[in-house]
Amino acid sequence: MPLRLDVKRKLSVRSDRVKCVDIHPNEPWILVTLYNGHAHIYNHDTQQLIKTFEICDVPVRAGKFIVRKNWAVTASDDMLIRVYNYNTLERLHQFEAHSDYIRSVVVHPTQSYILTSSDDMTIKLWDWDAKWALKQTFEGHIHYVMQIAINPKDNNTFASASLDRTVKVWQLGSTQPNFTLEGHEKGVNCVDYYSGGDKPYLVSGGDDRLVKIWDYQNKTCVQTLEGHSQNVGCVAFHPELPIVLSGSEDGTVKLWHSNTYRLESTLNYGLERCWAISCLKGSNNVALGYDEGTMMIKLGREEPAMSMDASTGKIVWAKHCEIQQVNLKQLSSDQQLKDGEKVPLNVKEMGSCEIYPQTLSHSPNGRFVVVCGDGEYIIYTAMTLRNKSYGSAMEFVWSQDSSEYAIRDGNMVKIFKNFKEKKTFKPEAGAEGIFGGSLLGVRSYSGLTFYDWETTSLIRRIEIVPKIIYWSQNGELACIATEESYYILRYNPQAVAAAVSNKDLISEDGIEDAFDALSEIPEIVKTGIWVGDCFIYTNSLNRINYYVGGEIVTISHLDRVMYLLGYVSNENRLYLGDKEMSIVSFELSLSVLEYQTAVMRKDFETADQVLPTVPKEERTRVAHFLEKQGYRQQALAVTMDNEHKFDLALQLGNLQICYDLAVEMENEQKWVQLSDVATKRGDFKLVQECLTRAQSFGSLILLASASSDKQLMSTIGDQSRKNGQFNIAFLSNFVLGNLEQCLDILIENQRLPEAAFFCRTYLPSQIGRIVGLWRDKLKQMNMERAAQALANPTDYENLFPGLVNTYKTEQYLKQTTQQQSANNYQSIIPNWERNPIEEMQEAENSEQFFYGPVQSNNDTVETDDNEHSSNIKDTSKQTISPEIKQTSAASPPPAKTNKPTTDLPVVNKLIPPVIASTSSSSDRSRSQSPMNNLVNSTTKSATPSPPPLNKTTPPPPTTTTTVTSSAISKATSDKPATTTARKTSLSDLEKELQEFDIEDDVSDVENAQTTGVNKRFTDEDEDLQFDDDDVDEFLKDT
């Protein structure tokens, strides 16, 4: 029977004539050198051109990857060797290697050497570590040296093919060839070594259209392969398959069996002459170079022929035609296996197989091993590899019963029982593949069909195209893996039995209730096994996962492609193998799988018995599985992870467990989560504690507002301020009406502009102090002009209409604001409907409120004004004159005469105060607010000071006070320093006004309409001097 090899096309690109191809061992790349002087690198996975080298204008006949250095080396007809970094495309080096066309380049597998052959009939050895020094020249051929190949079993020897009709074998370090192989009738174009360990062979092809197999130990020709109709340009032994490939100028690539030398297949892709073949160890991929492009094909399957009997721990594999075995029970008990590390095993040679094994599998009971390949199958005993049965078959599958199996031969399916043919049938839709297990599965063009092993009757037809089917040990669960996903089905033998007795339950597609679809998982299964109700598999991302009850758990990530072999339950280890027959293992607790299986079967009694055997480190994973199955209460009892336990308790509403865990973990997020659940439960005491521990002051403000908890709001303000959450602190104090605290918070954070506007709205009495701080801050920032441009409302009242009323309203609100009971909500006027200034005026007119001016805070920030401080000290013993006191104590004046001057029409100019200031700068003058007017008018009096005014004393008329203070100031200002200070102040003000492009003179500003409170100033009278007679007369009048 011929060798059955599937040939899949992976890459097909058109290009100029290809002279050489090479496959990268680690990346999905092919290096292609062209006759037009260029070189390309293609990605054979994406079929994209990813890199291009424009090397020269003459043919590039050879190119190779040097993976150790990330290099690509090329040889061309300009006799130059060029070296490129294939990542950056940078040319690193070039040198002239030969005196004629360079035909071939090979890279030494271990040392820093390359070998080149040329039409100058020489072979040269170059060392890149020695700056590409020429180490040796091999001479002996008398014609062009077309190709060279290094022996994979002995890296110090290599063979060369020449047009002098010979193949020579050389030794590094020797100038003469070891021997010469003669037999071709014409020139030899190509040569390659057999990489297997069993045969010392090499192959050559020549212009005589022949392919010859040589034994280089006996120096004889073993076989001559005839079949090509033109010159043979390239040959290769496949490193993984028993295949010899030959490419010819007749446009074909022929595949020959390396054992029988039969012609197995001929490939013709219509790309004209074939010039190059490249294979890669460990891969079934083959690259082909033609006149019109490049092809990449995949022969057979890369999955190794390996099988494991989990009951005995024996692993059997086929290495080429040799059957080998390892026994896991040989491992000593003191050997600690680590996950992912290679298992140290002794390989036992079982013997040679008469056919090339493509698949190998144990029977369910482990007694037999079947090998399938070359269109035949052989059943061996597992112990001694004794031939038990054989026959022709394209596929072989075992039933759940080890005595029963089936084979596919074309479209016919044959079932055997105890090695004797029992039944043969031909499926209606044909047979493209068969699958074993509890039912016999047949894949056809229309989908998948399940048949009964005994009767071959139709069980169910499913419209999916499976790649492979895995059955659980008890035959209840099946995994159907396709090219894009896999399906988990549950088989119902009861429904099948019922349908057998009742034919009405059987439809055209079989028994509908035969299977229940449990899950569809969008993952590509490479290999898989069932352990209980858990399906363990490797996927296309090189991960080991297992599926149980709809949950997918990742066991490990793999660094290469590996294939599942089996699970040894008494060791709790999962075993895998790779293409190199290396065995690795991973720990997987059987008790966990048993527990999950019992839960899936709803056998909770068994699950409770298994649970104590589950390791503590695995219990959290089991708890996650229980949670996904909907068993949260059980998951809460099983889990060992506090985070998971908290989440479960939260879902179950067990606030006490949540509280205990939150106290233990001291996690802010946990307290917030618990507060949310407690809020829904209405447990506000717990809510407050949770939010307090979480320092979630924003939520606490909401709670305090909703519950009218003044104490809590005050605590929030204090704690948030200590923690630096000033926005929360400001808001809480504002809600409580602690305006002074709000102002302090703004000052503390250097938010002086906001503080000034806050004072303007809520605390007018603090405006002077805050504006002073604002000015100082600007001066510290070297913004003197901006500081001078700030108008202090206490200095320039005429720019701030109604300022005096705001002073009064502030005092009025302090006197009248009181805490109200919630019962009065309906009767209390909302704040947005109130007008506090009108309320104050009404209270003042009805004598229910008397304004008591207090000293402004403006002076408290003027600490650098020594003269001002001394004035305060000197005048502290002075008192208000009896006349003023008497006037102030009189009955309240009429409403019309009691209004401050700022209520009158004003000119939009900066009007300085009338009272002469002793300050050294204009921005440090005293406030002219009603609160300061009384102070100014009393500082010059010599009479004893009366007791301080209380809040109920009605204020004196503003006009009288202002005039009196002005007159007293003038009468007592005998020193010329006062006049000088005033002149200086006005001079500074004029400069400021000029800088701000205010055209009007200061004298024009002061000539604005007033009520007699301020005196008029002219340009001729800038010194503000009064006649003594006028002062005396004024004092008498007052």
Automatic annotation (TrEMBL):
Ranges of the WD repeats in the UniProt entry: 95-127, 138-180, 181-224, 225-266
GO cellular component: COPI vesicle coat; Golgi membrane
Keywords: Cytoplasm, Cytoplasmic vesicle, ER-Golgi transport, Golgi apparatus, Membrane, Protein transport, Repeat, Transport, WD repeat
A single GO BP: intracellular protein transport
Region of interest (Disordered), residue spans: 852-1038
Residue ranges with Acidic residues bias: 995-1004, 1019-1032
Skewed-composition ranges (Polar residues): 877-890, 965-987
COPA/B TPR domain location: 595-775
Coiled-coil segments on the chain, per record: none
Domain of life per record: Eukaryota
Keyword Protein transport: yes
InterPro entries given in the database record: Beta-prop_COPA/B_2nd, Coatomer_complex_subunit, COPB2, TPR_COPA_B, WD40/YVTN_repeat-like_dom_sf, WD40_PAC1, WD40_repeat_dom_sf, WD40_rpt
Domain COPA/B second beta-propeller: 322-578
UniProt cross-references to SMART domains, sorted A to Z: WD40
Listed Pro residues bias regions: 944-958
Gene Ontology molecular function: any one: structural molecule activity
Membrane topology: Peripheral membrane protein
Skewed-composition ranges (Basic and acidic residues): 866-876
Main location: membrane
Protein localization: Cytoplasmic vesicle, COPI-coated vesicle membrane; Golgi apparatus membrane
PANTHER family according to UniProt: COATOMER, COATOMER SUBUNIT BETA
Family from the record: Belongs to the WD repeat COPB2 family.
Record's protein name: Beta'-coat protein
Source species of the chain: Adineta steineri
